[in-house]
Every structure is written in structure tokens, then in C-alpha cells.
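Researcher: I'm preparing a figure for a lab meeting and need a structural model of a single chain. I don't have an experimental structure, so a prediction will have to do for now. The sequence is pasted below. Please return the structure as C-alpha cells so I can convert it later.
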Amino acid sequence: MMLLLLLVSPCLGASSQEAILITGGSVSGAEDFQTFRSSELLLSPCSVPSLPRNNWDHVTITMADGIILSCGGSSDSCFQLSPDLTGWTEHSAINMGSMVSNVISAVIPSGAYLMGRNAGAFLPTGSSTWNS
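Model: Understood. Here is the structure written out cell by cell.
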């Protein structure tokens, strides 16, 4: 998953810059399905740690309040990237049943929507509780 974001981090000093955050993913083949937990920042001198576990078919979003979340995919969890880019912590659980992979997202000032094939959930900005 790729996310374009405005990066403000201690590794940049007092400045900010745009960067692209790439998280997780997979390479598939008939007999060789591989998944990843790596995270990488493109267009930035900063580094970012890997996700807590392998994840694919997920979304990575920036909430209106600047919180960066990586959600869904191979689990029903959302992980939050710390503001100083040093770690991911569990943020919330998504209440979408088994429909947390291959989701699409939409972020608006009041929160974020995740939509799957037959289900959806909304996370209000500033909250850690998803509403179905």
C-alpha cells in the first residue's frame, strides 16, 4: 500500500517534506505466495520501521488529525505509526467481520471510511473505535 503524506519528523529537524510511505504487500505465484511487513519512505532521508506483522490487501491512511494508520488486510487490526516514526502500535480493531481485505478507504475531516464487498466501518477523527 502506498500513501503520499506530508512528513514532519525529528529526522528532518524543523522542516517538513512530502514523502511516500509504502507498507507491507505480497508477491504471488501459483506455488510461491510471499507476504511482507516492511515499510519504506520514498523521497525522504528518514526511515520507518516494519509493520508488527506481515500484511497485504490493506490500506494505509492519514487521518485529518495527522495520525497514520495501516488497517485491515490479513487482520482486523489497525496499527498507528508513532509521530517520531520509531514504531507501530496497535490502534484499534475494525468491526467488519471477515471483510477487512481488499478494502477501499476515504478520509474526510470527520473521520475515515473503510468499505469492503458487503460491509463498511467508520472511524471518527480522534477516536479508536470503529462504527459499523
